[in-house]
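Q: I'm writing a short explainer about Holliday junction branch migration complex subunit RuvA for a general audience and would like to include a description of its predicted shape. Could you first generate the structure from this sequence?
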Amino acid sequence: MISYVRGTVTGVNLTSAVVEVGGVGLQVLCSPGTLASLRHGQEAQLATSFVVREDSMTLFGFLDEDEKACFELVQTATGVGPKLAQAVMAVMTPDTLRRAIADDDVKALTRVPGIGQKGAQRIILELRDRIGAPSGAAGAAAPSASDAGREQVLQGLIGLGWSAKEADKAVDAVVSEASDPTDVGALLRAALQKLGKA
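A: Of course. Here's the predicted structure. Afterward I'll give you a sentence or two in plain language.
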């Protein structure tokens, strides 16, 4: 229904951005990596997926159409809703997801908060023939989920106004203390607490 939004970014917080389109502020839920690319007061264009439920209407935003397509495809797997699909896209790039499914890499998928062993196997089984091959160079090493998560937290902090040096120091500290270095949301909250105390 709403394929994309383009307008001025009037607000960015931990989970969403507000984009003003024609005098209306639209709240768009985004991954930390997408939020990190947005700047208050600048124009942005986000590919969007409009999810309507009995009790809510939610607009999810993405950097490009490929990320949006993967988000929508992952939801076709049994037991995967929009929040879990967004968690997948927060931890994995579209190509990392394709590679994990092509390689039967259950471990990579279970790094996503909310996906267990059986859920990962079900996603692989149901999406294997539909998700396509990775578009990156053959043989290119995929970043680990923990590296991807660290980078997303770092970009999220920079997007929220901290310097790269401050953000890097905070992320290093929380990653070394984290029980799950792939949990982007927990890392981001811990880094913000650390920066708030500094």
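A: For your explainer, you could say: The two ends are 44 Å apart (CA to CA).
Q: Perfect, that's easy to follow.
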